[in-house]
Amino acid sequence: MSKKIVESMCEDDTFALGKKLGEKCRAGDIILLNGDLGVGKTVFTKGFGKGLGIDEPICSPTFTIMQIYEQGRMPLYHFDVYRIADVYEMDEIGYEDYFFGKGVCLIEWAELISEIIPKEHISVTIEKNLEKGFDYRKITIEQF
After folding, report:
1. Secondary structure letter of residue 102 according to DSSP
2. Which residues of the chain register pLDDT less than 50?
3. C-alpha to C-alpha distance for 78 and 60, rounded to whole angstroms
4. Fewer Cβ atoms within 10 Å of its own Cβ: the N or the C terminal residue of the chain?
């Protein structure tokens, strides 16, 4: 396991970090994106998509559970499992085809489906600290 902490002072920093990670990703990578509402998960994801070469608009798939972007150098399977009531709902959407497919998975609220997350993954946690400023974010990247 490796761990890296990055301080983001603005949305551009968060976007740039997402882009950098997207540029380094390989097919089969699973990225868990953790953080409270409003911390910048969507900003990070937009940067991540840009790093994969995706130019189309990226938005959170809160009501659709998953959004597929195929325009980049590999597919991005963007999950938002906040509304999953039971992990078995993931079977209904055929999650294994995406987790073990030819693209990269980015999963928001992954703690809700922790029992099906592969042991090898990257966890990105975004946290606010208002004492350091309104736009400040502490971003912890852990590779398992």
Report:
1. S
2. none
3. 8
4. N
